[in-house]
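Worked example 3. Consider a protein that binds S-adenosyl-L-homocysteine.
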Amino acid sequence: MEARDQLLEDLRARDRDPRVVAAVAAVPRELFIAPALQRFAYTDRPLPIGGGQTISQPSLVARMCELLELCPGDIALDVGAGSGYHAALLSRLCRHVYAIELDDELATHAARSLELAGIDNVTVVSGDGAAGLPEHAPFEAINVAATASGAVPATLEGQLAVGGRLIAPVDRDGHERLLFVRRTPDGYERTPLDAVRFVPLR
Ligand code: SAH
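Given these inputs, the predicted complex is written out as structure tokens:
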């Protein structure tokens, strides 16, 4: 079986949301990684993307997309755009994605890869994602792909719409976990989930 079919079958076997599996099937991951690594495009593992950064394994990206409970009309913020792959998947599940990346070179490259993939509902912004994007807030969903120390930056949580969801890796006392946050009319509900490993939020 081809690696791509195998990956899709594994995601279905893990009971991933069919809309997320369809997004993984639709986005050519090879466009988001260096030519020398393209033969690993559909292997379920993280890959280097330059600048000492990595693109997460597809099963984890799919899991994070599913947790955001995206609706077709939603506007999402992606912090740490990296290669642009995660933003590409999110873009298949909502109306528009603003993707922020600190490294200018990665941001330029991500924008080019998204264009090559024929994706026109992602805006790549070069800058510090820890500050969010107040001019486009509030967001129904915020995805963070780099680990925050201690807690999710309050500025980011504050840019969630009421009912909005955020997923971020957070390091607490050396233990790194995905944290799910939901903004309610009264505040924030925070739920720690899977143990993970990401690069640090700078
Ligand atoms: N989601 C990416 C992988 C992200 S790796 C993908 O699909 O390829 C984490 C990224 O977060 C790196 O590219 C790193 O440069 C970026 N990053 C780290 N701190 C950041 C910050 N404060 N603002 C924006 N981007 C940041």
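Take a moment to read the result before moving on. Residues 104-116 form the longest helix (13 residues). The chain has a mean pLDDT of 96.
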